[in-house]
Amino acid sequence: xxxxxxxxxxxxxxxxxxxxxxxxxxxxxxDSRKLVIDDAAxxxxxxxxxxxxxxxxxxxxxxxxxxxxxxxxxEGSVNVYEPLVLDYGHCRLVVAGKPEYQNAEWRLLAGLRVxxxxxxxxxxxxxxxxxxxxxIEVYGSVELAPMVGLADLIVDVVDTGRTLxxxxxxxxxxxxxxxxxxxxNRAAHTLRVDEIRGLIEKIDxxxxxxxxxx
Length: 214
Ligand code: PRP
Description:
Blueprint: E1 2-7, H1 12-21, H2 27-31, E2 36-39, E3 44-49, H3 54-59, E4 65-69, H4 70-76, E5 81-85, E6 91-97, E7 113-116, H5 119-128, E8 134-137, H6 144-147, E9 153-158, H7 162-166, E10 170-178, E11 180-184, H8 186-191, H9 193-206, H10 210-213
Parallel strand pairs: 1-3, 1-4, 7-8, 7-9
Antiparallel strand pairs: 2-3, 4-11, 5-11, 6-9, 6-10
């Protein structure tokens, strides 16, 4: 069976739709809380995992392939093959903070505390600018941190910008843009070359329609 890890959360629904459009049966992923969904007819096993864990499952070969956001991929810094970027899951990783920091010189941001789910990318970003900062890792609702004095700034993904706005935060800088990506375990890419190549071609053939479906 080909094992394919799908990221939970925002990417799950469009990822399910993508595979359904290829004829796979993922009803179990919609109707239950099962984390393993088998489609024996297609020789596929889908693993439903937390976004940050998908690259790990794929790197270690517990999954042959997966769909995950490039944000989680860069944070994980894993050694996987990334043959295809998909046309959904668009968002941006940004630095944000209270409006008082909007026009602050960068050097004034030195020494500030930064809350994030992306400690590795955040450290790289601030280090590259010669800014020391204390990085506080939180697991969600990052926008809460500046409101209650846990941190001065945040690094987080922005989609519509609504969460920032409704919590009185403004974007200070964009770190990178992100979208969903199809990733493949390096060994599987060699050992199951025909299956993997076939799947890549099928996904590639449908992805221009994914935004309309998603
Ligand atoms: C993400 C992100 C922001 C929000 C951005 O959180 O961390 O909080 O979405 O979306 P917006 O710009 O459209 O408002 P998510 O809902 O995935 O949950 P989490 O905070 O628990 O990780």
